[in-house]
Amino acid sequence: CGSCGCGEVCQSGKCQFTACSGKSCGSDGCGGSCGTCSGGGMCVGTGCVAKGTLKWEFLVDGYTVLCTPAVGADGTVYFSTDFPFELVAVSSSGAKKWAVAAPQDKSFWGVAIGKGGALVVRASDGVMGYSTAGSLLWTADYEVYALAIGKDGTIYGLGPDAGDAWRLVAL
Length: 171
Prior knowledge:
By secondary structure, this protein is mainly β. Helices cover 0% and strands 42% of the residues. The chain has strands at 8-11, 14-17, 42-44, 47-49, 64-65, 70-71, 77-82, 86-90, 96-101, 108-113, 119-123, 126-130, 136-140, 146-149, 155-160, 166-170. Strands 5, 6, 7, 8 and 9 form a five-stranded antiparallel sheet that branches. The termini are far apart.
């Protein structure tokens, strides 16, 4: 063969273009293309997939959603609402599983998935833990504006301190 070009290998004494082997779309790595997707499809990895289609929708009638939803390991979607202040669970098929009202004089402002799948909820004056069935597990009196969960299950909260200072707490 001698020297083969970009994306080619020597097979049976001839240079063969193999950069697109197993691919139906996308870059060939040599400045060319292995093909395009028809019908509005998208190239993902080595093949074409249809653009996203609606799997289900859940009408949040009369509510204001106050946070980015969190998704549990089983596909349940959790979010908090305003007026009424509720923590809501929607199944992976789009059906409402349950809604829990915030305790008196509290409001919910966000939810994250904690260790073991427990829900960690940012409330108006603290952080609260709920089971995936909607039962209150614990409360912590730390006002936080943002939550994150570490790989080890540590809950990190960023919230106000005296004056213009901020503090990061780990629970």
